[in-house]
Specification:
heterodimer; A: alpha+beta; four-stranded antiparallel β-sheet; elongated; B: six-stranded mixed β-sheet
């Protein structure tokens, strides 16, 4: 049966080449955009370098103190005091790490050139919950932190800009803000879109100018908790959720008196969704999916309507065939499926073209410098989504014409649909 | 095999009602080869379409292969046509995009048969009509007579009890027409397949076992 459908689909495609071109052009262009979007989402949210352990990680990156009487709130990342006094005492995580968001500073190369840099303070565990590729040297350890060593890890871009391309720089001195650091490692850079790991320079947190003795719950840090398996991650969430209400709130003042503390240990996607789509008190995951799927549906609607029109014309040309098939035993349902399958086959052909186009577009994005260290990829996940989108698009644009045509009366169909 | 009782068929538009068939009563027994004759527009094809369950009567009762056909759902009608009936049309109605073998296989697609079995049966049917060597050809590469023989092969491939032929020789010259009629006569004799044929040709009609005449939608005895 399927072979028969394939033969007829191929024959119909060859019959009206302009229609075929318009159909395939519309499908492949639509799916190219969607595949690039999916590749970008995969780049943002899937475990990728250097965050390959992301499925095992939970993040605490937002602490909100809310004044329940005056409706004011104070939201920021996590304070060192919060980490030291509470989070570090959690029993369920296998590993606890923390780092700041990347901050922009200015540096000067030995030749006097001004270089804009991103710097990030981290603890030693940061190197264990991430999978950086060290091109030379090593990460700093707890021992380095304990002995107050002024060491840094830099990425290869900064190595090339500061010291010269491809130089061996381990042991050399690197100066920022009139402070001299010793380079102990060089890593392959992390894209800026991976906010929790991206930076040009990584510095031990104890070398920060921030006041580590402050007792504020808020601060500049993002905490990364590593679990052993999904069950363990649930336990970590539960332990942290139980801890939060027990944390004593700061007394506040006349204008702001904290009444409740919100903080969540959650997955990367949950954290981002909470920031983007809610006021922080509820998870934004459902909104994230609504926005993504609405965008995709809307983006597919116009080309699908166009394809519906083309399909109506094409199927009408085949009224006689519909009549013959019905006369010899095809039910309306069978015919509906035949035309839907033909349309899905057409969509899959469009997908093949779209995948080739997407590879080109993604190559351009990765190399045009718009996102430094971008590593978008048409991987199996993206290809899987491409096939799913293609089938959805095929169904979307094929069901109505197929249903309309399958309802033709046999005699009417044999007379060419008149 | 086929019983029609008080069959009426009318077509309504906003302004007029046209009576296409008027109180047709007809009984066709197994193994008969009847022809339906009459001038253009007298309702021959409409009657054939009703017998073939391609169209429904406005009033009246039909029994085909001992099964009363009344308000059957689309799926059951399709299955019934697939198993019991075979059609031959004046303009062949072959699918030009498919090769001969696939055209002949078409009725078998809607049965639970393996591809190998479908190919075997279709090849056998083409053998019967003398087109075994044309299985890979496309309809456009065949003459009118060959096309009609492919259509006959398609009609018989599923071994139906009844074949309905709507002017099967109408587009052919007399030699080719006779050849097609001979195939149908042989089929009727050897397989005892019941055949109902609509024709304009008195000469062809006389070769069948019974002749039914229509005029202005009514049966003329």
């Amino acid at each position: 049966m399927l072979t028969n459908y394939l033969k007829i689909t191929w024959a119909v495609l060859k019959r009206r080449k302009l229609f075929t071109f318009i159909s395939l052009f519309g499908i492949s262009l639509t799916l190219t955009v969607l595949i690039v979007v999916v590749a970008f989402l995969d780049h943002l949210f899937a475990p990728n370098y250097p965050e390959l352990q992301r499925k095992q990680l939970l993040y605490i990156e937002r602490v909100e103190l809310k004044d329940t009487t005056q409706l004011g709130s104070n939201t920021s990342s996590v304070g060192y005091y919060f980490i030291k006094e509470y989070i570090s005492k959690l029993k369920t995580p296998e590993k606890i790490a923390f780092c700041t968001s990347p901050r922009t500073i200015n540096g000067y190369s030995p030749t006097g050139n001004k270089i804009r840099l991103l710097q990030k303070y981290t603890d030693a565990n940061f190197w264990e919950v991430t999978d950086f590729n060290f091109l030379e040297g090593r990460p700093y350890t707890q021992n380095d932190i304990d002995r107050q060593a002024s060491v840094v890890v830099i990425n290869e871009q900064i190595r090339d800009d500061y010291f010269g391309k491809g130089q061996q720089v381990t042991g050399k001195t690197f100066e920022i803000d009139n402070i001299k650091y010793q380079v102990i490692g060089v890593v392959k850079g992390s894209p800026i879109t991976r906010f929790y790991t991206s930076s040009d320079i990584y510095i031990p947190y104890n070398l920060t100018k921030d006041d580590l003795k402050s007792t504020e719950l808020n601060g500049p840090y993002i905490v990364i908790l590593r679990g052993t398996d999904p069950q363990n991650l649930l336990e970590i969430r539960a332990e942290f959720a139980a801890l939060v209400p027990k944390i004593p709130l700061p007394p506040g003042g006349t204008w702001f008196k904290p009444g409740i503390l919100y903080a969540h240990a959650e997955s990367y996607l949950e954290g981002i969704s909470r920031q983007l789509f809610t006021d922080g008190t509820e998870s934004g995951l459902k909104y994230f999916y609504i926005v993504i799927f609405s965008f995709m549906a809307l983006f597919m609607t116009l080309p699908a309507i166009n394809l519906v029109n083309i399909n109506m014309n094409r199927i009408m040309e085949r009224a006689s065939e519909i009549g013959i098939r019905k006369a010899f035993g095809a039910s309306s349902t069978t015919l509906t499926w035949q035309f839907i399958i033909e349309n899905v086959i057409l969509s899959l052909m469009g997908t093949l073209i779209a995948v080739v186009l997407s590879v080109g577009v993604i190559y351009y994005i990765n190399h045009c410098g718009l996102i430094p260290n971008a590593d978008l990829l048409v991987n199996w996940t993206v290809l899987g989504w491409a096939v799913v989108l293609s089938i959805v698009f095929g169904l979307f644009s094929g069901v109505y014409p197929a249903w309309r045509m399958s309802k033709l009366q046999v005699v009417q169909a044999l007379n060419g649909g008149e | 095999m086929i019983i029609l009782k008080n069959i009426n068929k009318s077509y309504r538009t906003a302004l007029v009602e046209t009576l296409a068939l008027n109180n047709i009563n007809l009984e066709v027994t197994k193994g008969e080869f009847i022809s339906i004759m009459g001038p253009s527009g007298c309702g021959k094809s409409t009657l054939l379409n009703i017998i073939g369950l391609l169209d429904s009567p406005s009033t009246g009762e039909i029994t085909v292969c001992n099964e009363p056909i009344r308000n059957l759902p689309d799926k059951m009608l399709a299955q019934f046509r697939n198993k019991k009936l075979g059609f031959i049309f004046q303009s062949y109605h072959l699918i030009n995009d498919l090769p001969v073998l696939d055209n002949v296989e078409l009725p078998l697609l809607y049965r639970r048969l393996s591809a190998r079995e479908r190919t075997r049966l279709a090849t056998e049917a083409l053998q019967k009509v003398g087109l075994r060597n044309r299985i890979k050809h496309y309809p456009m590469q065949l003459s009118g007579g060959q096309k009609q023989r492919v259509a006959i092969a398609r009609a018989i491939v599923g071994n139906p009890e009844i074949i309905l032929a709507d002017e099967p020789t109408g587009n052919l010259d007399s030699a080719m027409g006779n050849e097609i009629l001979e195939i149908l006569i042989q089929l009727n004799k050897s397989e005892r397949t019941t055949i109902v044929m609509v024709t304009h040709d008195e000469h062809m009609a006389r070769k069948t076992t019974r002749l039914v005449r229509l005029f202005d939608g009514s049966q003329v005895n």
